[in-house]
Amino acid sequence: MADLTFAELQRKMQIEKQTKQGVKYPFRTAEDINNKFKSLDSGWSVSFPEDDIIQKGDKLYYKAVAVAKRESDGTIEKAIGWAREEDVPIFHTQKGDVKQMQDPQWTGAVGSYARKYALQGLFAIGGEDVDEYPVEESQEQGQNNQQQKPNNQQQKPNNQQAQGQNQVRYIDNIQYQEIIKNVEEIATIKGAPFDTVANFVLSKYQIDDFHKVPVDGYNIVMDYLTKQIQKAYEKQGV
């Protein structure tokens, strides 16, 4: 078994973001980082002994503490990751509004983000990530998410009648280009990589490609992007 210094371990833990399952933009998950760590014969162990949910004002934050321990001498290294818990995203159907997942599942998903940030901080993993981009949240967060996963489930109905009722119409190429232009403008104003901004917006609306914005959701996405452009210009004093 190797007995790496922590600096050596950090160098070996530099994991690139990946594109998975047809997702257009690259990203990394806590599972990716854990799998990379497990593949190394490092002489270190990693645990999360201090997960917690903290309320600040009317907001809930999930706190994760990642701890690396060197087996040879007991050396400890720590890092904290935070993720804010919003309301469970809602997608809209002809039969009414439906939660993306149950509250306990959503809390688990938010906790996974916090652990990812803790691991990235612990191992000094480089590169901006989706949720690290400081785009201001709009008040519509959690109310305007129409996402691909439920659509995929809807496209596997038990009968042809249900299939016809649940088909989702997506935006056309002109609308797609308008969204892309706005994302590019935000990236330019803030001096951020296009992929970073795009990833943030895709994550916000729980889709993996802007082509998969439902027609009914186009104005919602455009309104959000327009507000972000205005805020970005205001911060620049324009």
Characterise the protein shown here.
The protein has 238 residues and is α+β, with helices and mostly antiparallel strands. The protein folds into two domains: 1-129, 2-Layer Sandwich (Enolase-like, domain 1), CATH 3.30.390; 169-238, no CATH class. Helix content is 41%, strand content 16%. It has eight helices and six strands; from the N terminus they run H-H-E-E-E-E-E-E-H-H-H-H-H-H. It has helices at 6-12, 30-39, 103-122, 148-154, 160-166, 173-190, 194-204, 218-235, and strands spanning 44-47, 52-56, 59-70, 76-85, 90-93, 96-99. Strands 1, 2, 3 and 4 form a four-stranded antiparallel beta sheet that branches. Helix 6 (173-190) packs across helix 7 (194-204) and helix 6 (173-190) packs parallel to helix 8 (218-235). The protein is elongated, with a radius of gyration of 20 Å. It comes from Streptococcus pneumoniae. Residues 134-165 are annotated as: Disordered. This is Phage single-strand DNA binding protein.
What characteristics describe this protein?
two-stranded antiparallel ribbon, 4-stranded antiparallel sheet, 238 residues, 2 domains, alpha+beta, Enolase-like, domain 1, single chain
Reported CATH architecture of the largest domain: 2-Layer Sandwich
Report the strand count. Answer: 6
Radius of gyration: 20 Å
What assembly state would you assign to the polypeptide chains in this entry?
A: single chain
Molecular shape: elongated
The profile of the biggest β sheet is: 4 strands, antiparallel
Note the beta-strand portion: 15-25%
**CATH topology descriptor of the largest domain:** Enolase-like, domain 1
CATH class of the largest domain: Alpha Beta
- Please state the structural category: alpha+beta
Tell me roughly what share of residues is in helical segments. 40-55%
The succession of helices and strands, N to C, reads: HHEEEEEEHHHHHH
- The tally of structural domains comes to 2
First-to-last CA distance: 58 Å
Low-confidence stretches: 128-165
Question: What's the total helix number?
Answer: 8
In round numbers, the mean pLDDT is 75
